[in-house]
Amino acid sequence: MLHTPHGSIETPFFCVVGTAGAVKGVTPDELRELDAGVLLANTYHLFLRPGADVVHQLGGLHRFMGWDGPIVTDSGGFQVFSLGSGIEHGVGKQIGMFPGDDTPDTGRRPRGQAARLVRIDADGATFTSHIDGSRQRLTPESSIATQEALGADIILAFDEPTSPLHDAEYTREAMDRTHRWALRCLSARTREGQSLYGIVQGGAFDELRSASARFIGSLPFDGAAIGGSLGRSKADMHAVLDWSFAQLPEAWPRHLLGIGEPEDLFSCVARGVDQFDCVAPTRLGRHGQLYTPSGKLLVTRPEFAEDAAPIDAECGCYTCRTGFSRGYLRHLFAANELLGYTLASVHNLHFILDLMRKIRAAVRGDYLGELQTEFLSRYVGGAAR
Amino acid sequence: MLHTPHGSIETPFFCVVGTAGAVKGVTPDELRELDAGVLLANTYHLFLRPGADVVHQLGGLHRFMGWDGPIVTDSGGFQVFSLGSGIEHGVGKQIGMFPGDDTPDTGRRPRGQAARLVRIDADGATFTSHIDGSRQRLTPESSIATQEALGADIILAFDEPTSPLHDAEYTREAMDRTHRWALRCLSARTREGQSLYGIVQGGAFDELRSASARFIGSLPFDGAAIGGSLGRSKADMHAVLDWSFAQLPEAWPRHLLGIGEPEDLFSCVARGVDQFDCVAPTRLGRHGQLYTPSGKLLVTRPEFAEDAAPIDAECGCYTCRTGFSRGYLRHLFAANELLGYTLASVHNLHFILDLMRKIRAAVRGDYLGELQTEFLSRYVGGAAR
Question: Measured between CA atoms, how close is A69 to chain B, in angstroms?
Fold first, then answer.
């Protein structure tokens, strides 16, 4: 159980992502009906718009969003740096790119990627807003101040994540900076009642991950998040988790940032992950990709035009329970009807939250391996039908 | 009370518009919580996509949309003809215009408006799909067949509406055609359990409206709808209603097509309108224009950025009751968050449905005039604050 000022949550759990202070297309009432325990909002987005002061003025993030359950905010690090290396490396979330920005290449980053959109210094990062092209700055101190103003239950230290394309040398440099920033984040805290998690970096390098987990684990954080590069394969990701968790305090909750496709949950829980967050259920939903026990179903395909069956006859979500047909959903997507995004997102969120419930029961009942075998024997995650 | 195969409804009532078989951004569950009695879907849109056969195949419109209350479909006439004269005259709903269509001007229409997108003949209308530019055709018979396949509780005769810019001569011509088509619609019916309403045309010409209402009222329809031009002012609209209703059978339910701003409801109910439909609540909502007892509030305005108040503290809708602030709603619109469209649409629908409930009580209690005076003394419909 994880205890927060907005309720206690059984682990492991999946945080539903509400990037800009709203889960796309889904109301808090619908989230409550889905039994979504915890939401995660992005500091980067709220910092830029409407601004943490505005959210604070409007009563803090819980009141702002109409959510009285626990909320996590990330530190902004991932988004700030994915504007730079993420875009330049062609990996990670691509938030937006404003060619108007002409910050000169500082030469600090490897392989010639121009730091056009983000510039790092020892003190923090200067970056270009994807909204209006303005220059903005976040430091460990301002990230913590922002997250304190937002008022989430769990906040994260400001870090510099690296991508799979960064070499060991640069990954170590970024890790060292993340460690110095971790100390500054701890010093910058002024508020009671918020948990602060440190972030373990070090890419997919055993030595670096272990060192980072040892260092972060030695500090007075309330938990840890695993950030940055998880390598290039599932095996790499599992190794990263093993290296990290071997060094972290037993009692700490562990958040694996940005991961949460159905097939990932089992192996990561088995390795000790307590918290996930992922935009996949809502993002895939908005593109008509629907989770089913036998894999993803792309409901926009012509073959579903006259299909009177629900997405999944066994599913208990609002969309399936009401009996909305695949044909109707396909029609909604073809007509760009907002209702399609809602019905698909509700279904996908139910799928993943329900899977987490089954996984929790399996952990308690000690049959996680059996559940995984059974689930994966039917589920083919890669290919949409 | 109006009795339909999907329940009985107290009149007067407001039909929530679900153009393409979905109320934009609002789930059937939310509609039920709003106590939305009756939905109206557009035959034109469903005829083009996904096709009435597909809707029929998927169980008919009620099953398709997940709505077990009464549904009205219009005949397609309004949309077909607003593609022609509506666009050419710059009035009415502008659905879309495909310059690729090069149907020659047939010379049948007055004032030189080229019938590029719609061509009328004695038998029906040929028009260009706003979706894919294909040529399509609707006749009285095919409109009825389409509406029978869709399966709404109340269906409408196929008509040719005229705009305020049509002269008396053309308006008479279109009215005569509408009357001939009304007879054909009655003959084309094959299905029990659907009410068929005739449509009164005749523009804002006393003689024509009276003649049309007399003719339509003499036929074995189950009710009447008032279509076409309602003139250029509220006074014109009221005269059109008076001329029409003087000639219609006392017992018939009367639907005023496409009207339903708050300030219109009182005077139209006083004149005998039983049914309204209007896209305004959801369309205005999607643009951040929110109904309040003191007029429309444009929540996207900068002054609301830090406004912690709900849209209307007295309002009982989900959006206001939950306490979502004007500042939050403004943020959702600024960030193009889907949730903003939903919360605003739910609020506006609640406002108009609640006003209709108050109007029904006032009609029963014989104080409609007092309610109107009280409402209009506060409500300024024209200008958004």
Answer: 14
Domain holding B198, by residue range, is 2-83+91-96+106-278
Closest CB to A21: pick one of B26, B30, B331.
B331
Considering the domain architecture, whether residues B257 and B295 belong to the same structural domain is answered as: no
Q: Is residue A383 part of a domain?
A: no
Alpha carbons B160 and B177: distance in angstroms, whole number: 7
Q: Which residues of A are tagged catalytic?
A: 74, 277
Q: Which of 309-348 (A) contact B at CB < 8 A?
A: 318, 322-325, 327-328, 330-332, 334-335, 337-343
Q: Which of B278, B307, B328 is the last residue of a domain?
A: B278
A240-298 pLDDT tens trace: 999 999 999 999 999 999 999 999 999 999 999 999 999 999 999 999 999 999 999 99
Please answer whether residues A5 and A13 qualify as being in contact, where contact means their C-beta atoms are separated by less than 8 angstroms.
no
d(CA A337, CA B25): 7
Of B228, B259, B278, which residue constitutes the final position of a domain?
B278
For A253, the token pair is 């909750």
Supply the pLDDT for residue B248. 98
d(CA B342, CA B329) in angstroms, rounded, equals 10
**Residues B63-100: pLDDT tens digits?**
999 999 999 999 999 999 887 555 555 554 333 222 22
Mean pLDDT, to the nearest integer, of A350-377?
97
pLDDT tops 60 at residue B21: yes
Catalytic site residue B159? no
CA distance readout (Å), B169 to A291, B148, B162, B172 = 59, 33, 11, 5
Question: Distance, in angstroms, between B338 CA and closest chain A CA?
Answer: 5
pLDDT in tens, B31-49: 999 999 999 999 999 999 9
Residue A341, domain member (yes or no): yes
Which residue is catalytic, options B53, B74, B105, B354?
Answer: B74
Whether residue B248 is found in the same domain as residue B339: no
* A230 residue type, one letter: L
Q: Which two tokens stand for residue B169?
A: 């001569």
User: DSSP class of residue A110?
Assistant: G
Chain-chain contact of B339 with A20 (C-beta, under 8 angstroms)? no
CA B360 from chain centre, in angstroms, equals 20
Peptide bond into A302 cis (omega under 30): no
The span from the CA of B155 to the CA of A176, in Å, is 71
Please give the tally of structural domains in chain A.
2
pLDDT of res. A98: 28
pLDDT tens-place string over residues B267-286: 999 999 999 999 999 999 99
Domain with residue B220: its CATH number is 3.20.20.105
Is B270 found in the same domain as B311? no
CA B121 to chain centre: 25
Per-residue pLDDT, B62: 98
A305 located within any domain: yes
pTM: 0.92
- Joined together, the tokens standing for residue A266 give 């089992």
pLDDT the model gives residue B108: 41
B134 touches chain A (CB under 8 A): no
In degrees and rounded to multiples of 5, residue B346 shows phi and psi of -60, -45
Same domain assignment for residues B340 and B240: no
A331 and B28 within 8 Å at the Cβ level: the answer is no
A130 and A11 part of one domain: yes
Q: Based on the fold, state whether residues B271 and B296 are members of the same structural domain.
A: no
